[in-house]
Write a structure and sequence with these properties.
CATH topology: Immunoglobulin-like
Number of helices: 1
Helix content: under 10%
Strand order of the largest sheet: 1-2-7-4-5
Radius of gyration: 30 Å
Structural class: mainly beta
CATH architecture: Sandwich
Oligomer: single chain
Order of helices and strands: HEEEEEEEE
């Protein structure tokens, strides 16, 4: 019996594998984020009499989706900040060098972009009025929302 056990142990090594395989898997969680001036929200003051492109913010888009992502831009007042009364002004929003009329939601298609990208945001007042007395007094406000979604 001892000899049989010894023979079994000695011969079992002859059938051992000469290679072994280890399969490794790693996972990267999806990242899709957007910030304005390094925060979730920001504020800027616009000169309603200045008809040039006024720099108001920098938006940072971050995504690791290989297909890219969409940015939607919407205005609470359809691109016409108002003073809470009967008066409003009109403007276009520049985003990454492209001008958008925010009377409806704008969509920016960033196909295949992976990483972090900064976009300059400008406001160009398009209202024809050029003198302060042409506007009703008060604070004119609008809220612009930027949203990022993976494709």
């Amino acid at each position: 019996m001892k000899k049989l056990l010894l023979m079994t142990l000695l011969t079992s090594g002859a059938f051992a594998a000469t290679t072994a395989t280890l399969n490794l898997t790693g996972t990267i969680a999806p990242v899709v984020e957007i910030e304005i001036n390094g925060a979730a929200s920001a504020s800027a003051t616009v000169d309603l009499l200045d008809k040039t492109a006024q720099s108001v913010a920098t938006v940072t888009e971050t995504s690791n989706d290989a297909d890219g992502y969409y940015i939607t831009i919407s205005s609470a007042n359809s691109g016409s900040p108002n003073n809470g009364a009967a008066d409003s002004a009109t403007y276009t929003l520049g985003y990454g060098g492209t001008s958008y009329n925010l009377s409806s939601v704008a969509t920016v298609d960033n196909a295949g972009v992976v990483g972090s990208t900064d976009r300059a945001v400008t406001v160009t007042v398009t209202d024809a009025r050029t003198d302060a007395f042409d506007f009703a007094s008060g604070s004119y406000t609008d809220t612009v929302t930027f949203e990022i979604t993976a494709k």
